[in-house]
Amino acid sequence: MALINGVVGIENVSNADLIIEAAFETMAVKKEAFGKIDQYAKPGAVLASNTSYLNINEIASSTKRPQDVLGMHFFSPPT
User: Fold this and answer.
1) Please, which of 32, 35, 38, 72 could form a disulfide with 62 given CB 3.0 to 4.6 Å?
2) 61 within some domain
3) For residue 63, how many other CB atoms are within 10 A of its CB?
4) Of 4-8, 49-53, 64-68, 73-77, which range is least confident?
5) In the predicted structure, residue 75 carries a pLDDT above the cut 80
6) Strand 69-71 relative to strand 46-49: parallel, antiparallel, unpaired?
7) Is residue 49 part of a domain?
8) For the chain, what percent of residues have pLDDT higher than 70?
9) Residue 35 φ/ψ, nearest 5 degrees
């Protein structure tokens, strides 16, 4: 856990090995976010989307590295 560092701000992703996006579940919002992430993320970084139903290939198409994009759905359990 000591190796995990959560940061806010797109400019802070440049050294990350794994970037998890958790923006609003709309294709336009996701594609805009990934387009921006792609500009700052280092080569080889894994770009993950917290999407439950949007097409991950379409989201990945907004980057120059679609092979590094994956879907990763998580949620908080209801209480």
Assistant:
1) 35
2) yes
3) 19
4) 73-77
5) no
6) parallel
7) yes
8) 94
9) -60, -40
pTM to 2 decimal places = 0.85
Q: What is the pLDDT of residues 38-66, one digit of tens each?
A: 999 999 999 999 988 899 999 999 999 99
Active site residues: 73
Containing 71, the helix (H) or strand (E) segment is strand 69-71
- Say what the pLDDT of residue 77 is: 57
Name the residue range of residue 52's domain. Answer: 16-71
Q: Residue 73 has which token pair?
A: 């759905």
Q: Which residue, 60, 78, 76, is CA-closest to 68?
A: 60
Tell me if 47 is assigned to some domain.
yes
* Sheet bearing 18-21, strands edge to edge: 18-21, 46-49, 69-71
Total domains, the chain: 1
Q: Which two tokens stand for residue 57?
A: 């290939």
